């Protein structure tokens, strides 16, 4: 198949999933065309089946905001037409699904029928999409996609609750490439960070309010009163500065390191003992899956689709959003010498169920069904 993939080219989960999916499809012999405004973060190598088309957003003094959606729709029209694509797969509804609808209508006038699959990732539904300023367009573009997928049962449920959807939504969970995300031998890192054999906790996110990074720091602050530990914070975003301030107030700066955005996050995960994901909302929790693939158990909140991934009492623990006390208690259970090896083993076993080789064929099958239905 010749597939066009539209996504955000950033470190965010939806962009990562879209890019890894495209890479996997190309590896399996499909021709994949990425259409976005910047080279996706993980697409920094050459492959004969991978193409990248940059959306050129022209500016004009009249525009306070450059019309990305129009430039994207125009680029989709030309790529579909000249590269003879079989299907467009857009990740994250806003504004990709509506731009795809526009492109589809334009192509129709030229006698070209292009099936569109929209994948809902989370905040496009739970935070941004249901705001009245976007809701009518999101509802319309979901209902007018030829196929719709969501990354968890919970996200499907939320979508059906908050929007008037007349389309079947297929759940295809996120996935992981276990060839890349696996425990690596990086003991020298561990010794450098934890010279006295401390336990290593880790959190990775885009440091937005919804991630509740404050809870990560509070859990760590309480836990290290009884267990010698260090904390690594990977990623960057609006909450980083307030969190640095909080660390200073708590006097924990020597034990917490802010690493910023990291491409090789698997190297940090490889030496970690516990991953913290206390999010307020989380449709799936890809960052937790990446940790589990590197044999790191997870303390998470019960938000959204996380409990579909993190199995309470097995791969880690699922606590109520904001229940720092419970998270501290459960972290200590995981980190005890007799429990840690079992939790690590369970985390890896669970991650294997989401291996790309199990999930990718479900997308291919869905593409075929969608193409046949148009
Ligand atoms: O978590 C974010 O803020 C980024 C966001 C995105 O769209 O990139 O992540 C969402 O999509 C990921 C991939 O499907 C999911 O793993 C995340 O759980 C989801 N985030 C939220 O629902 C908050």
Report on this structure.
This protein is α/β, with parallel strands linked by helices. The protein has two domains: 2-175 and 355-373, Glycogen Phosphorylase B (Rossmann fold), CATH 3.40.50; 187-352, Glycogen Phosphorylase B (Rossmann fold, 3-Layer(aba) Sandwich), CATH 3.40.50. Helices cover 43% and strands 17% of the residues. The protein contains 15 helices and 13 strands. It has helices spanning 13-27, 68-83, 93-109, 123-126, 135-143, 153-162, 187-193, 213-223, 240-250, 265-269, 286-293, 306-309, 324-335, 340-352, 356-373; strands spanning 2-6, 31-36, 50-54, 87-91, 116-120, 147-150, 169-171, 199-204, 229-234, 256-260, 274-277, 298-301, 316-319. The strands form two sheets. It has a seven-stranded parallel beta sheet with strand order 3-2-1-4-5-6-7, sandwiched between helices. A six-stranded parallel beta sheet has the order 10-9-8-11-12-13, with helices on both faces. α12 links the parallel β12 (298-301) and β13 (316-319). α2 packs across α3, α8 (213-223) runs parallel beside α9 (240-250) and α11 crosses α14 (340-352). The relative contact order is 0.12. The site of ligand GMT has 22 residues, from α1 and α4.
């Amino acid at each position: 198949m010749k597939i066009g993939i539209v996504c955000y080219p950033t470190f965010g989960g939806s962009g990562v999933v879209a890019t890894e999916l495209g890479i996997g499809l190309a590896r399996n012999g499909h021709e994949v065309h990425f259409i976005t405004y910047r080279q996706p973060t993980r697409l920094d190598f050459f492959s004969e089946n991978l193409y990248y088309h940059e959306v050129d957003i022209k500016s004009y003094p009249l525009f306070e905001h450059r019309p990305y959606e129009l430039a994207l729709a125009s680029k989709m029209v030309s790529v579909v037409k000249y590269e003879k694509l079989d299907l467009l797969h857009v990740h994250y509804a806003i504004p990709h699904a509506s731009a795809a609808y526009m492109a589809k209508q334009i192509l129709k006038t030229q006698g070209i029928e292009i099936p569109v699959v929209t994948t809902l990732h989370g905040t496009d539904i739970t935070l941004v999409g249901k705001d009245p300023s976007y809701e009518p367009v999101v509802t319309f573009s979901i209902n007018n996609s030829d196929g719709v997928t969501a990354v968890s049962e919970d996200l499907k449920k939320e979508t059906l609750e908050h929007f008037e959807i007349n389309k079947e939504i297929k759940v295809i969970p996120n996935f992981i490439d276990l060839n890349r995300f696996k425990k690596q031998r990086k003991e020298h890192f561990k010794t450098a960070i934890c010279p006295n054999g401390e336990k290593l906790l880790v959190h990775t996110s885009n440091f937005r309010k919804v991630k509740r990074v404050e809870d990560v720091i509070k859990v760590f602050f309480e836990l290290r009163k009884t267990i010698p530990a260090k904390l690594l914070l990977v990623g960057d975003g609006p909450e980083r500065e307030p969190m640095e301030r909080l660390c200073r107030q708590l006097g924990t700066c020597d034990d917490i390191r802010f690493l910023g955005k990291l491409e090789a996050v698997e190297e940090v995960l490889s030496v970690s003992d516990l991953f913290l994901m206390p999010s307020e909302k989380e449709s799936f929790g890809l960052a937790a899956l990446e940790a589990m693939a590197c044999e790191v158990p997870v303390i998470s909140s019960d938000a959204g689709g996380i409990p579909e991934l993190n199995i309470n009492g097995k791969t880690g623990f699922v606590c109520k959003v904001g229940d720092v006390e419970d998270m501290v208690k459960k972290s200590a259970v995981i980190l005890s010498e007799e429990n840690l090896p079992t939790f690590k083993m369970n985390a890896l076993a669970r991650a294997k169920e989401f291996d790309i080789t199990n999930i990718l064929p479900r997308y291919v099958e869905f593409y075929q069904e969608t193409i046949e239905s148009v």
